[in-house]
Amino acid sequence: MLDISLYLRHALGDSMAKQDLLEVEGVITEVAAHGNFKVRLNNGPEINAKLSGKMRKFFIKVVQGDRVTVGISPYDKSHGLIMFRHNTAAGAPPFNPDDKSKNDKR
Predict the structure, then answer these.
(1) How far apart are CA 43 and CA 26, in angstroms?
(2) Domains of the chain, CATH where assigned
(3) pLDDT tens per residue across span 24-47
(4) The model's pTM
(5) CB neighbours (10 Å) of residue 54?
(6) For residue 21, which of 47, 52, 69, 71 is within the disulfide window of CB 3.0 to 4.6 Å?
(7) Of 30, 100, 104, nearest in space to 68 by CA
(8) Could you report the per-residue pLDDT of 53-88, keeping only the tens digit for each?
(9) Which residues make beta-bridge pairs with 81?
(10) Are 82 and 104 in contact (CB under 8 A)?
């Protein structure tokens, strides 16, 4: 039998979601294995963070020194989720898939 309280909590939006994360900017200070990173937040502390699923799916690379936006759960502030990598190269041209000089596969 389906637990009605569980159904109602999910239907009413009472569960933890991505929108409930605190978004804070920081800088990657150390790269660890399997998509884990140490991030120094702008407000001071250094936390462990991992790449979000969308960043892994689209092969977005994050290296030491990159500015990132980290989502932190209000329940555990020592771990985070890297949600966005900021463009650090000022004036970098946007990616153009029709540019044959860079994407020539011959």
Answers:
(1) 8
(2) 16-85 (2.40.50.140)
(3) 999 999 999 988 999 999 999 999
(4) 0.67
(5) 10
(6) 71
(7) 30
(8) 999 999 999 999 999 999 999 889 999 999 999 986
(9) 50, 71
(10) no
DSSP codes, 22-41: EEEEEEEEEE-STTEEEEEE
Instruction: List the Cα angle 75/35/87 in 5-degree steps.
Output: 90
3-state secondary structure (DSSP) of residue 43: coil
What gap in Å lies between CA 73 and CA 75, rounded to an integer?
Answer: 5
* Per-residue tokens: 15: 């569960």
Q: State the Cα–Cα distance between residues 78 and 75, nearest whole angstrom.
A: 9
Give CA–CA dist 46/39, Å, rounded: 5
CB-based contact 49:85 (threshold 8 Å): no
Contact 23, 83 (CB under 8 A): yes
Q: Which residue type sits at 34?
A: H
